[in-house]
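By convention, the token line describes the chain's fold. To illustrate:
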Amino acid sequence: MPASQHQNPKSDIEIAQTAKKRRIVDVARDKLGIAEENLEPYGHYKAKVSLDYIKSLKNKPDGKLILVTAITPTPAGEGKTTTTVGLTDALNVIGKKAMCALREPSLGPSFGMKGGAAGGGYAQVVPMEDINLHFTGDFHAITAAHNLLAALIDNHIYWGNALGIDSRRVTWRRVMDMNDRALREIVCSLGGAANGYPREAGFDITVASEVMAIFCLARDIDDLKQRLGNIIVAYTRDRKPVRAKDLNANGAMTVLLKEAIAPNLVQTLEGTPAFIHGGPFANIAHGCNSVSATTAALKLADYVVTEAGFGADLGAEKFLDIKCRKAGLKPDCVVIVATIRALKMHGGVKKEDLKKEDLKALEAGIANLRRHIENVKKFGLPAVVSINRFSADTDAEIALVKEKCNALGVEALMADHWAMGGEGAADVARAVVKVIDAGKANLKLLYPDDMPLFEKIRTIAREIYGADDATADKAVKEQLKAWEELGFGKLPVCIAKTQYSFSTNPDTKGAPTGFNIPVREVRLSAGAEFVVAICGEIMTMPGLPKVPAADSIDVNADGKIVGLF
């Protein structure tokens, strides 16, 4: 393998395609002790693990849970998924039994501008092309279940509307797993009485669907069915909620998801087992892989590495306050991913100037990392900082980051897993094990269940974002009060805002102060069991860029995919 990061001429897909993969049944047997009869293979290199087998593990002790998060994202890149994969391989390199649990990527961003989401360099999960494309069909099943409910709503209205649904107050939109701005706002049922009652509607991307959020929080089939039934899809003229179960929809929706809910097992380039399962939008939902995959992994390995979407202010907060609250999970260590390049961007350096040493800008940018470290500590969790190495990083810059982290009582280590695989992150792995062995993790959720909903929003704004306060108009506050009166007051809140800043202004880098978080809208996800607070402009159906990644993706005469990241 190459000796220094980002000097390898091979692309991620070329590295993945030339890797020697083991049959997934062999990985499952040799690394996890799972017999072949407990797998449902999808070809040679991916398989679903039987839910019955997972249930049989319930009395086994749990392994240690490691959460990988990051500083506030920048165009310079941080490499959170790459670190998750590299750290998992590194734990195995130092003699530990480890696996990772990751989110599935969405087709939309893969063909848009994000590229692949299976790691990078020599820290990837494979088969990379399958994972970034149709994989085992989970997202298609979620899309179908969501749109079945949409069809049943319009069908109910067409055949007499016995529930008295106000067609102006249908809140359930349709979804597709692709970026298509033309479908954000539409009018449906045109063409006369035979096609139904015309109304305004629209599409979201599949990962923004409440079905996706439910899928990733459900403990089992029964829990999934109950949560799907609780989805509020519309309101009557007197503002009474109409749920999916009122339409008898949740049984059929569960049928479409019964295969998908079993976790998907794949492997890293080094043959380490990996679950990849579910992928809710990290803005509009909680941005974590499924509870079923994470809890199963904890029964199968001594160390489980998982990740949360975006920076620690969005991803880690939601992982802890929503996923851990609902599933009873308790991380033993948090790894915060950073790059010196990204920290310099937070200090005001333009992307084209990042290769130049700039200690002043780096020190200013470290304020962003500092706030994330302090936030993690507020949850009672110990942290390690993993700095992804780039060839332009200087000794003075590396020393400065380590010095500032040391002053905060956190160890910062350089990692070169992109170029060297697990060996490149061995120092980070040893530091993580040392922190876990110290036994100092004591998860404290940010707010109690019985705190009023708006106070929960204010608590996150002040404690995590560093804002002076959260603000909302009278209608938003009254809506929250009405939900509390209906029995939803104990739900956690999910803040939907830009991932690019602690504030709602994506151009404000570093660790800003002196700002408020304006809540312009709130939405109730009654099935997923959280309240979404929309802060600033959030797109639930992204558009494609001027030059989408799809322009470069192709298949050659030998059937080999090219151009996919």
Notes: The radius of gyration is 23 Å. DSSP finds 19 helices and 26 strands in the chain. The first helix runs from residue 12 to 18.
